Amino acid sequence: MSIYLIRHGQTNGNRDRIVQMPDTPLSDLGQQQAKQLAQTFRNIFIEKIICSDYIRTQQTAAPLRTIKKVTFSLQPLLRERSFGDLRGRPYEEIDADFFAESFAPPNGETHQQFIERVHLAWKFVLTTYQNMQGSLIVMTHGLVLRELIKQHLIVDDATLPLSDFQNTCITEVNGTDKKTVLRLCDAQHLLDKSSVSGAAV
What we know:
By secondary structure, this protein is an alpha/beta fold. Helix content is 31%, strand content 16%. The chain has one domain: Phosphoglycerate mutase-like (Rossmann fold, 3-Layer(aba) Sandwich).
């Protein structure tokens, strides 16, 4: 069994490079991607889904919930990093590298605060996974995934670069050691022509 770490589907904020709000919904393409994602798990034994409580992650999980009909819960620890007053603004209008570790967004999370929260999120994931008989899906956000992989997981040097986090990409973690990445940022389901068409942006 495995732990599947998944990024949400595309939003207009992703497409237009806008710092997103908690209530940013999926775009039409994001809705298609969520359906394609669900198909990839049709024949996999999923026991639980835990999900960031933001709208875009809940909408991405919705087709999965329809197909799998498994235990589902929301977890605020899985939220994307808060950029505070920068939320809702286009990247090009922000006169700073707001992804830099030294940057502290006004009324948002510092890089260190975010790392500490992601650490707590991973502890929650491992606690949830204890004594499960099936696999666990964790529906979250791009920056959360990057830190989970960087801080807590083992990635083979031959795998895809960490920069390739497409919408609805799947990172599969070995359920035995809970550290080894078996698949990194896999978005092959978006190329499946037998499912709903659409590519990640």
